[in-house]
Every structure is written in structure tokens, then in C-alpha cells.
């Protein structure tokens, strides 16, 4: 069975630009993205977060529906979505979840009697995952010779937390929980409990079941990054299919650019051989205006939307 590449990021603190370690990890990242559009980042420190993160998620999803609905928001792709019709999932999305101040008011709303551990647990995990995302982003931009844009891109990024709960379908027949799709954002990093279900499609059309180990964070590319890179990397086509009766929990970091930032391939990536493929666009604006079509099975394709 094919397996997506596993890349060791355990010495995340030591992987610094210019070091031998950096160049070695960067070459593995680019090799994996070229061959599979995705990889598993193995980060030993993730394991310390595992038990508290999934316990915090259980605590949230066990709240009464009317309490969870206090997190519903007018903004698309933020807030609480659920409960799921058969085959779908329930989720909580929080913008800029690496900043404690963004989670604390929500935590107080959900648990008026107090629950500091929920925000602390989620913030510290998202901080770890966002550091990983920044490292990967810097490596990708460096590989294409456009590293001078890394800081402005990072400064314009919303590190959105998305906690997902999939009920077990109670059958041994595989059930599609999330239809094949591309993510629309820049980079998505996923950390799951022991219930597998994510599948990745290779360019050749083959589906690979992802079976991450407890220290693995799955890294996938979204359409927005493809647009920013003038098509240099392809978005990862993926789906979720599960069996059995156990709950699948996934905590994801969906990095995407904020409103006001124009997603536009830098001039270094455009020349006679590589003409500009996409119209510049504002990701937030796109999400706000096209979100009604973002439901399962009918996702607006960003690449189609801004293709020239
Ligand atoms: O559950 C997963 O592993 C992936 C979720 C996903 O693809 C998404 O939320 O866009
Ligand atoms: Fe996805």
C-alpha cells in the first residue's frame, strides 16, 4: 500500500534558515509536495498535547446544542456548524486561535462557571502547529526564490482553528463523510485521534489512506497557495471515508490570508514561459461572497473563480 512521506520536524526549534538541518528538511518537503502534494510532519512535541486537546474537544462537543449554538456566527466558515445530518460532521471554527485573547471570551460564554483549560489547551497546540506552518511556508517560498515575501505573508495570515467531530457511521461499509475536495486556504495542518479516515488522491488518481502516528501532523496544500505560487504547487485533493462506531476527532489549523491582502503571484514567478494564470483576489472577500456555495459536494472552486 502506498503511504505519504513522513518528514521529521521534531527538532522544530533547531530547524533554522541557513542551517544544514534546514536545507535537508526543505529538500524533503519539496520532494514530498512534488510527488504527493502532501506529507506527514512528525513532531514529537505534538504528543504532549494529544490527550488534553482531544479531551477539550470532547468537552466542547458534549455541551448542549443550545450552548454550542452560542458560537454560531454571521461570518461564513467561522463559528459552530452542526449538528450533522447523516454522513456529515460537526465543527467549531475560531479565527486567530494562536492568540489567547481570541479564545478566552468564547470559553467564558461556553462555560460561564469557568474552564481556563479549554482555551489554554487549544491556544498552546495551535501555537505549536502555526510555528510548523510558518517553517513550511518559509521553506516553500525559499525553494521558489521568493523568500523575501515570507514575512508579509505570515503577517497577513489568519491561523484558524477548526475542530471537527465525525460520528461513527455504525457500519463496516465505508461511508463518505467529506466528499473529495481541495481546501481553499493556503496550507491546512490536521491532527487526528486514533480513528483514520482521511484519503489523499495522487495526480495519477490513486487514493491513499492516511494512517498517521500519534506524533504526526498531516500537511496539505490549498488552492490559495497554488494561486499565490502561479500554479507552482498543486492543491491536495482529499476526502474523508470512515467505518465503525467510534467518534473521529480532528483538530486542524487552516492558514489563510486576511481581508485586505491581495493574493497575487509575485512578479518573480511570472515570465514568458510561466504566464500569469490567476487574477489577484482577496481571500476573505471570496469566502464572504461565495460561501453559500461552499457546502459539501458543491464547493466553489477558487482556481476556477480566479483563472485567467
Ligand atoms: O477530517 C479530515 O481529516 C479532513 C477534514 C477536511 O478535509 C476539511 O475540513 O476540509
Ligand atoms: Fe479539506
From TrEMBL:
PROSITE patterns: FE2OG_OXY
The keyword Metal-binding belongs to this UniProt entry's keyword annotation: yes
InterPro entries recorded: DIOX_N, IPNS-like_FE2OG_OXY, IPNS-like_sf, Iron_ascorbate_oxido_reductase, Oxoglu/Fe-dep_dioxygenase_dom
Entry-linked Pfam families: 2OG-FeII_Oxy, DIOX_N
Keyword Metal-binding: yes
Keywords: Iron, Metal-binding, Oxidoreductase
Record GO terms (molecular function): metal ion binding; oxidoreductase activity
Superkingdom, natural source: Eukaryota
Residues in Fe2OG dioxygenase domain copies: 157-259
PANTHER family attached to this UniProt entry: 2-OXOGLUTARATE (2OG) AND FE(II)-DEPENDENT OXYGENASE SUPERFAMILY PROTEIN-RELATED
Similarity section: Belongs to the iron/ascorbate-dependent oxidoreductase family.
Protein name as it appears in the record: 2-oxoglutarate (2OG) and Fe(II)-dependent oxygenase superfamily protein
Organism expressing this protein natively: Hibiscus syriacus (Rose of Sharon)
Amino acid at each position: 500500500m502506498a503511504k505519504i512521506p513522513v518528514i521529521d520536524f521534531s527538532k522544530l526549534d533547531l530547524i533554522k534558515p541557513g542551517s544544514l538541518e534546514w536545507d535537508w528538511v526543505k529538500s524533503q518537503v519539496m520532494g514530498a509536495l512534488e510527488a504527493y502534494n502532501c506529507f506527514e510532519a512528525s513532531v514529537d512535541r505534538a504528543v504532549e498535547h494529544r490527550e488534553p486537546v482531544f479531551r477539550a474537544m470532547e468537552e466542547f462537543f458534549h455541551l448542549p446544542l443550545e450552548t454550542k449554538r452560542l458560537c454560531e456566527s454571521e461570518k461564513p466558515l467561522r463559528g459552530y456548524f452542526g449538528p450533522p445530518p447523516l454522513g456529515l460532521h460537526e465543527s467549531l471554527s475560531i479565527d486567530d486561535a494562536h492568540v489567547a485573547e481570541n479564545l478566552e471570551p468564547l470559553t467564558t460564554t461556553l462555560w460561564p462557571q469557568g474552564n481556563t483549560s479549554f482555551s489554554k489547551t487549544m491556544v498552546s497546540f495551535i501555537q505549536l502547529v502555526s510555528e510548523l506552518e510558518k517553517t513550511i511556508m518559509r521553506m516553500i517560498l525559499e525553494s521558489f526564490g521568493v523568500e523575501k515575501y515570507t514575512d508579509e505573508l505570515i503577517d497577513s495570515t489568519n491561523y484558524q482553528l477548526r475542530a471537527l467531530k465525525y460520528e461513527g457511521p455504525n457500519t463496516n461499509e465505508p461511508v463518505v463523510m467529506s466528499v473529495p475536495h481541495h481546501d481553499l486556504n493556503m496550507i491546512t495542518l490536521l491532527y487526528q485521534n486514533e480513528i483514520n479516515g482521511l484519503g489523499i488522491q495522487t495526480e495519477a488518481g490513486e487514493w491513499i489512506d492516511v494512517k498517521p502516528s500519534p506524533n504526526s501532523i498531516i500537511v496539505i496544500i490549498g488552492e490559495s497557495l497554488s494561486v499565490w505560487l502561479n500554479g507552482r504547487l498543486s492543491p491536495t485533493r482529499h476526502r474523508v471515508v470512515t467505518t465503525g462506531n467510534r467518534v473521529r476527532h480532528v483538530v486542524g489549523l487552516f492558514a489563510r490570508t486576511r481581508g485586505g491582502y491581495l493574493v497575487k503571484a509575485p512578479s518573480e514567478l511570472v515570465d514568458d514561459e510561466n504566464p500569469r494564470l490567476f487574477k489577484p483576489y482577496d481571500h476573505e472577500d471570496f469566502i464572504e461572497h461565495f460561501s453559500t456555495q461552499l457546502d459539501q459536494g458543491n464547493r466553489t472552486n477558487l482556481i476556477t473563480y480566479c483563472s485567467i
